[in-house]
Amino acid sequence: MYLKLCFVTTGTGDRKTSIDGFYAAFADSGVKASHLSLFEKPNVKDVSAHLHEQDVIWVDRGSLVNLLAVWRAHAIDEIMRDCWQNGVVLGGESAGSLCWHTAGTTDSFGDVQALTDGLGFLPYSNAVHYEGRREYFQRCIASGVLPEGYSTDAGAGLHYEDSDLVTAIADRKSAGAYRITGRSTKGGVREELLEVKYLT
């Protein structure tokens, strides 16, 4: 039996090189690979049916703001929520991590800014590339612009079941994952380094 894996690259404008690289990575494997493109039009006849039949949906990096706008125009946000509630595993990197959260930080506009209208499947804020966004992310949480949440360095990821964090994983020893909670006794925030499971 094949694992069904769908690659979604909306944030890059469905960049062909990313899609080609995805198929090359899973060639001759135990994975039945597919992808969803929305530019210039959907590449599958029934988007909802295609996504619902997957075991895993993996969302690529790119512009978080553009991804959310296009998904909402095509009702992909509603389809993704229904897939998730029916047991399809959702994942991704960078924008593909941020999108599932309530809020986070993004450089979709150029400079890093707070974004507060994520999909909200996970009731937390999220910061990827944390090594370069630590100060800003913490300041947004301390001021109440963003809710408490989780952050990751490049190479680290977060594994949730439903909306509960189960573990943090990483593919390199230098990658950390963190929980950022409300104001500390000194008026800032509390950064908790999470235990990370390293992949071998």
Structure write-up:
The chain is an alpha/beta fold. The mean pLDDT is 95. Strand 11 (177-183) and strand 12 form a beta hairpin. It has helices spanning 16-25, 47-52, 64-73, 76-85, 95-98, 130-143; strands at 3-8, 31-36, 56-59, 89-92, 101-106, 113-115, 122-127, 149-152, 156-161, 164-170, 177-183, 189-193, 196-198. Helices cover 27% and strands 34% of the residues. It has 6 helices and 13 strands. The strands form 3 sheets. Strands 6-5-7-8-11-12 form a 6-stranded mixed sheet. It has a 4-stranded parallel sheet with strand order 2-1-3-4, sandwiched between helices. The protein folds into 2 domains: 1-91, Rossmann fold, CATH 3.40.50.880; 100-200, no CATH class.
Strand % is 25-35%
Indicate the structural class: alpha/beta
Counting structural domains, the number is 2
Spans of 5+ residues with little confidence (pLDDT < 50)? none
Relative helix content: 25-40%
Radius of gyration: 17 Å
Total count of helical runs of at least 4 residues: 6
Distance between the termini: 25 Å
Written as H for each helix and E for each strand, in order along the chain, the element string is EHEHEHHEHEEEHEEEEEE
Largest sheet composition: 6 strands, mixed
Major sheet: arrangement of strands: 6-5-7-8-11-12
Q: Mean pLDDT score, rounded?
A: 95
What best-fitting shape do the alpha-carbon axes yield? globular
Strand segment count: 13
